[in-house]
Structure formats: C-alpha cells, structure tokens
C-alpha cells in the first residue's frame, strides 16, 4: 500500500500490533488494517509525503542480539531498508540507546489475559446476608454486657435478716449472675430467633433487650428477602489476578519474542516473578505467531502476556462474533506503562516534523477516537466478571443449596452424637452403681467377729478354747 505525492516516498516497516495495525496476506501485497493506517494517512497528507509499506518476513518488532545487532523491523530500519517504523512500538531502554522515538502515540501497560473462568455455585451463599450484621451483633453484645455489668455493680443484692434463711426464689432473684454468659445468650439467641430461658434483670437491661428484639426482627426479615439473591449470585475463582499469582500458577504463557515483557523478564533477577513467568513461556523458541497465540489463549491452553490494548481488541473481536466474553485480563500490570512511539534512526530529520503533527492529533483526541473505534464492543468484557451480564437471569440449581444441606446434615450429626453420648453415659452410670453396692455389701460381710452357722448357731472366733 502506498500514498503517492510529489515528494519522495518513505518506506515504512510494519508488523502486527493489535489493535493499532493488523497485517495479513502475502509480504509483497499485504492487507493492512487497524487504527494506525488512518493516522498515517493524516500525518503524511499533512506533511506532503508519499509512503509505502515494507513487511519484514518475521513481522516481529525485533530484539538486540549479544553481538549488538537487531532483528525484525528494527534491524531492517538500522540496516537502511526502511526510513521509519510504520507502527508505534514500545520505547524500551535498549531501543532508546540505538534509535530515536517520536512523541508518544499512546501510553499502554503490559498485562496478562486468560480464558474466562466458569461461574460456580457458592455453597456459602446462605451466610453472606449475615456478613454485614457481624459488627451490629458485636456492638449489641458489648453494650448489653456493659449495661448488665453496670447494673450488677450498682444494685447490690440484699442480705437476709439474722435468723432468716434465704428462700430459693430469693437466691435466684438476688444471686450473682454470669454477666458474660447471659449477655451472649440474650444477644445471639434473640438474633437467631431462639427462646431464652432467663428473663433479663432490671429495667435497663430489659429495655436494651427489647430494642434488640425489634432490631433482630427487622434484620432477619431483610435476611430472608436477600437470601435468594445471595444464593443465585455465582462464585468466581480467578486462576490469577496479579504478577505473583501468575508466576505461582505455573500456567504456560505466550510472550512475544522481543517485546517489552520479554526484555523486562530477561533483565529481572532469577527469583523474581517476571523471570518465573518467562521460564514458563511456550513461545520464545518459535517464531511469533499471533493467531496461534490468540486461539490457544481462548482455548485455555496458555495465558497471553500482551499490551492491554491488544487484549481489549481480542475481547472486542470475540464478543462481536459470539456475543460472549471469552477472556478476562488481570487487574495489575506486568511491566507497567510503556510509551508507544514511531521509531527512527538517530538524527533523522523527520522527527521534528512528525512530533508536531502527532502532538496535535493526540491533544485533539483523534488518536483516541481511532483507537476506540477498533475496540467498541469490548465494553461489556472490560467490566468486572461478577457484574457481567447482570440482566441475565440464572435459575437456582442443586449446587446452590449444598451449603444449606451441609448445615442441616451437620446439625443432625451433632444431635445424633449427643444422643449416643447420653446413652453411653447412662449405661455406664447404671453399671457403676450396682457394682458399688455389691462391693459395699461384700466388705461388710467379710469382717465380722462371728461366723454364722446353720440352725441359728454362731461361732465366736475370738473365744479361746
């Protein structure tokens, strides 16, 4: 592809960098798409240059070899095969030393994407409505304990008069209560709608307990209304959501050779997370194959390390075709923000001319406008996974009730164990009581001074003949 004018034509080295430039077809007649061709048309129409695309066979950005030479598009640029890169590339430290970069087109960060995890039933969903009540219960428990303790401290029990014995009712009414036990009983039992055997002592404690009765009624009513919603809400387990989690997961990763991620991993300490991710890479020993990397990422065979813009474009494409979000991207960055610029040879006279136009395109929002046109359908997939498809109804299945079933089975098992323990203790007690009676009788009969004889006769063993 070329744009003809009266000025000499510039040769632009190109390669695939989603969504800015998408190169397909043969090298001698490439098909170029994305947002960058539109930007290049604007730039060179304004400057009055014609240009033509030159496809480097590997279609890779290029890396610096130990002997100081470069491969890919950058190597072609330094050898004089092209005048500049036609696609913005990350301006790393090595590239900055050997090349000049224009004003940045975009600022992008490197992240990792993976197949969207399957939604699972949350067996703990029936507990979630109580999650917001813990502080309330603790606050009421502390308040009740404080009020109860203050009352027992201020109001001392009356002592019976001399010569009078305290009746059981007086002891029950004026005895020293266990403040902590009763406070916990009145707070937790009332909240769980269980009967309380003891009446709160004193008006202050009764008022506090009465207010808590009313509040518990309201809270439990809200719980019942929210229970179904919490059961329907699915559980999502992400394979990784940070650099450390990706390194520990040992999931194979697709890392484009010569990319900013590749360079950062090579320069990282051996025990760092980036170095471990690079060890798990399955793409560094083979030529860069973008379609293969994307298809295996969607299939869940490996994770894809890529600029966020590229992952966003893949989300846009898959959602446009299937109506589903097949990928998710982790919330953290692997490398951080990198500057995407057009690269030129050192001292190129084109740099000030390009900077002037690029700066105005960026400030007027034209660059962002062309980029967003390429990823318009990725909006739904960029939402948090739990909030995607909130309008879609999901019916309850058996897995949603596993938590309730486990709670019921656990209660039934505890009741059975308690019943069996009662039987064992009762039988043990009954077996111990007869044995003690027999031993007592045997001890009494084994030490008499007379031995009983038939016909009411007895022999005095202590009498000497």
Give a description of the structure.
By secondary structure, the chain is of the alpha+beta class. The protein has 4 domains: 2-105, Periplasmic binding protein-like II (D-Maltodextrin-Binding Protein, domain 2, 3-Layer(aba) Sandwich), CATH 3.40.190.10; 110-124 and 233-338 and 380-394, Periplasmic binding protein-like II (D-Maltodextrin-Binding Protein, domain 2, 3-Layer(aba) Sandwich), CATH 3.40.190.10; 128-232, no CATH class; 398-435. Helix content is 45%, strand content 14%. The chain contains 15 helices and 16 strands. Strands 7, 9, 10, 11, 12 and 13 form a 6-stranded mixed sheet that branches. A hairpin with a 6-residue loop joins β3 and β4 (31-33). α4 packs antiparallel against α6 (179-191), α8 (243-249) runs parallel beside α10 (273-279) and α9 (260-267) packs across α10 (273-279). The longest helix has 44 residues, at 402-445. The protein is elongated, with a radius of gyration of 41 Å. The termini are far apart. The relative contact order is 0.14. The model is unreliable at 166-176, 448-454 and 461-465 (pLDDT under 50).
């Amino acid at each position: 592809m070329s744009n003809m004018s009266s000025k000499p034509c510039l040769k632009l080295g190109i390669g695939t960098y989603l969504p800015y430039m998408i190169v397909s077809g043969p090298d001698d007649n490439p098909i170029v798409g994305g947002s960058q061709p539109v930007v290049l048309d604007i730039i060179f129409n304004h400057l009055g240059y014609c240009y033509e695309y030159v496809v480097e066979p590997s279609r890779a950005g290029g890396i610096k070899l130990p002997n100081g030479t470069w491969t890919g598009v950058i190597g072609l640029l330094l050898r004089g095969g092209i005048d500049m890169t036609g696609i913005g590339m990350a301006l790393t430290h090595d590239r900055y030393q050997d090349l000049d970069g224009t004003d940045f087109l975009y600022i992008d960060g490197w992240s990792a994407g993976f197949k969207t995890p399957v939604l699972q039933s949350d067996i703990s969903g029936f507990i979630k409505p109580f999650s917001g009540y813990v502080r309330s219960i603790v606050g009421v428990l502390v308040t009740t304990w404080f009020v109860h303790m203050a009352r027992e401290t201020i109001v001392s029990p009356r002592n019976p008069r001399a010569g009078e014995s305290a009746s059981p009712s007086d002891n029950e009414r004026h005895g020293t209560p266990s403040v902590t036990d009763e406070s916990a009983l009145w707070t937790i039992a009332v909240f769980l709608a269980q009967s309380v055997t003891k009446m709160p002592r004193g008006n202050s404690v009764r008022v506090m307990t009465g207010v808590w009765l009313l509040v518990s009624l309201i809270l439990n009513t809200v719980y019942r209304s929210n229970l179904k919603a919490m059961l329907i809400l699915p559980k999502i387990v992400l394979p990784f959501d940070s650099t450390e989690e990706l390194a520990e997961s040992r999931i194979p990763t697709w890392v484009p050779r010569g990319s900013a991620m590749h360079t950062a991993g090579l320069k990282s300490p051996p025990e760092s997370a980036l170095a471990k991710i690079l060890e798990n890479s399955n793409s560094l020993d083979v030529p860069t194959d973008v379609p293969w990397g994307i298809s295996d990422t969607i299939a869940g065979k490996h994770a894809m390390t890529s600029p966020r813009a590229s992952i966003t474009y893949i989300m846009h494409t898959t959602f446009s075709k299937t109506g589903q979000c097949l990928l998710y991207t982790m919330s953290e960055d692997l490398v951080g923000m990198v500057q995407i610029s057009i690269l030129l040879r050192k001292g190129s006279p084109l740099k000030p001319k390009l900077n002037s136009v690029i700066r105005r395109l960026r400030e007027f929002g034209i660059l962002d406008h062309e980029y967003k046109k390429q990823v318009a359908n990725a909006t739904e997939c960029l939402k948090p996974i739990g909030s995607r498809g909130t309008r879609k109804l999901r019916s309850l299945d058996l897995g949603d009730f596993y938590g309730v079933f486990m709670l019921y089975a656990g209660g039934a098992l505890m009741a059975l164990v308690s019943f069996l323990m009662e039987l064992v203790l009762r039988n043990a007690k009954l077996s111990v009581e007869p044995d003690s009676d027999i031993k007592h009788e045997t001890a009494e009969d084994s030490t008499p001074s007379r031995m009983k004889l038939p016909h009411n006769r007895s022999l005095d063993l202590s009498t000497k003949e």
